[in-house]
Amino acid sequence: MASPATSLSPPTQPSTPSSQPQAQQQQRALLLTTASALGISAHSFIHSYTLASSLFAVTIATPGGGPLHFPETDANSRRWLDDFLAKPAAVPVAVESLDLTLFAALLIPGGAGTITDLPHNAAVAHLAMAFDRDKKLICAVGLGVSVLCASALLGNKGADWQFAGRCMTAPSNVELARTTLLAEQPLLLEDFLRDNGACYSAAKSDSVHVVIDNNLITAQNDASTLSAVQNLILLGNNSRRERKAAA
């Protein structure tokens, strides 16, 4: 599998309903991310947004419409973010206020803050279940996979988890132990996924590893963002061709 690209050049025009005249003809994708001060991975967010914008009109949402935080950036990503965050498209909408029927795909980039607020939000739990029930594309990267756990964390104990039996990946305990994140984790995704009936797999730490199970795409870590979103685009294009053929 190809290694993630290093280029962080911004798109000429971010593909959002407000910035492209043809956006009404595009399918929409929801980019769901954290409003926690622990923040979003700049690498994962930039690749997620720029790649998804090649096919979808992208809307960003956070719990309560809270602002985006990028605690760790390099010079290239900082330039991109400074330009992007000045645009109206960078202002998140509240996940609690979304009309889910408008969106064809859900994309969750990685980041340390992702696991602190998203899996404990009732609107996020409903969103993840609704997208999967309707067989819409879901692409979750790294700690963003925690969104899939929300329904189980907020639901009745003993109830069946909607994603039980599905094949997926997420950061491994070994991978987290190599960072400062392990002791701070409110949820160990590898343990949760195994304990709740998912078919979990992982590669070596920091390796690119993506698992596709029908409409569900999961990536082990932020380094796997590029490969994961490329597969989202591929499946989205296939779905669009099938709809055109059936029309």
UniProtKB/TrEMBL annotation:
Annotated localization: Early endosome; Secreted
Any one of the GO BP annotations: methylglyoxal catabolic process to D-lactate via S-lactoyl-glutathione
Listed InterPro entries: Class_I_gatase-like, DJ-1/PfpI, Prot/Nucl_acid_deglycase
Keyword presence, Secreted: yes
Family matches, as Pfam families: DJ-1_PfpI
GO cellular component: early endosome; extracellular region
Keywords assigned by UniProt, alphabetized: Endosome, Secreted, Signal
Domain DJ-1/PfpI: 99-221
Keyword Secreted set for record: yes
Principal cellular location given in the protein's record: other
Signal sequence, renumbered to the chain: none
Residue span of region Disordered: 1-25
MF (Gene Ontology): glyoxalase III activity
Function according to Swiss-Prot or TrEMBL: Component of the FERRY complex (Five-subunit Endosomal Rab5 and RNA/ribosome intermediary). The FERRY complex directly interacts with mRNAs and RAB5A, and functions as a RAB5A effector involved in the localization and the distribution of specific mRNAs most likely by mediating their endosomal transport. The complex recruits mRNAs and ribosomes to early endosomes through direct mRNA-interaction.
Annotated protein name in UniProt: Glutamine amidotransferase-like class 1 domain-containing protein 1
